[in-house]
Design goal:
The chain contains 9 helices and 8 strands. By secondary structure, the chain is an alpha+beta fold. It has 3 domains: 1-25 and 129-206, PH-domain like (Roll); 40-120, no CATH class; 242-273. A hairpin with a 3-residue loop joins strand 6 (157-162) and strand 7.
């Protein structure tokens, strides 16, 4: 991925305005979110590897400590032989299962994130193609969608990142960007977008209020004093939406399942470490000799 950074020696002549009529799809929005949160996604994948390594170390520590206490401290060969014998039994299967789960979680993390974003867009009704109008000019970027219009001043533009299928206009100070699909742009328009980024991005200094806002739209300043009732109404409205409600129910269901599986998981872990001390069935204590 290539990024157009702040450039000290920009062209003196401003490039001509570039008007774009683009149809943004759900995949374009997903690509923008993946680019916007790429650092967070990379850190999550690193945590998967770290947690898998810690789990493997803790699991291996149990048999090693037992073999060490039974004579492995005096004979390293016995320690190594006992560990290999443990790998040939249920302990090795448990380790292989941990490695498999961690590897699958690492490899499928990107697909999982994409599916979650797609589900969120579907719940919000943003999967259908949306016609958008963009104007790239020397004062910044103007955008127009069916439900709202926006203006981003040039001093707020942080960079233009170029991916395999999109241009990403990054905005400083907020977690937001503008994704421009290359399929909607001709080769000449792509070159003009790069020239526009070279000229606009990296301008220092915040201009006056009159220069940073569109001249045809008067500025509107609103002030509110939120009461506890207002905040309660906002929270209820947020919880009533489909996505937060379904996420809360899903987390509750997962928590209940994990709570039910906690005791069997602990017993399985103890049995893997020492099968002799954790019998698979309890003996019968009745007076008759039933064989149990």
């Amino acid at each position: 991925m290539r990024t157009t950074p702040s450039i000290a020696s920009r062209p003196l002549a401003a490039p001509p305005p570039l008007d774009l009529a683009i149809s943004l799809t759900g995949e374009d929005r997903i690509a923008g979110m993946l680019h916007l949160y790429r650092d967070l996604i990379a850190r999550q994948r690193q945590r998967i590897l770290i947690f898998t390594g810690i789990a493997l170390f803790l699991v291996m520590l149990g048999p090693l400590s037992m073999i060490w206490s039974e004579g492995g401290r005096r004979n390293p060969a016995l320690l190594w032989r006992g560990f290999l014998e443990a790998l040939a039994g249920p302990f090795g299967i448990f380790l292989a299962a941990l490695v498999l789960i961690g590897g699958l979680a690492y490899l499928l993390h990107g697909r999982t994130i994409r599916s979650r974003m797609k589900r969120w867009l579907r719940n919000e009704g943003l999967t259908a193609p949306t016609p958008c109008q963009f104007r790239l000019h020397e004062a910044g970027l103007d955008g127009s969608e069916p439900d709202h219009a926006s203006h981003v001043a040039s001093w707020r533009l942080r960079g233009l990142a170029e991916g395999p299928e999109h241009f990403f206009v990054e905005i400083a100070g907020i977690d937001e960007l503008v994704a421009l699909p290359k399929r909607e742009l001709s080769t000449e328009q792509q070159a003009q977008a790069r020239d526009w980024a070279t000229f606009c991005i990296g301008q220092t200094g915040k201009p006056d209020h009159g220069e940073s806002e569109p001249k045809d739209e008067p500025a509107l300043a609103l002030r509110f004093h939120l009461t506890p009732e207002d905040r309660t109404a906002a929270i209820r409205r947020q919880q009533a939406r489909l996505w937060p409600r379904s996420r809360h129910l899903r987390r509750l269901a997962i928590g209940l399942v994990l709570a039910l599986l906690l005791v069997p998981a602990v017993m399985l872990f103890l049995w893997v470490i020492d099968p002799d001390r954790v019998p698979s069935r309890s003996p019968c204590r009745c007076s008759r000799r039933c064989g149990w």
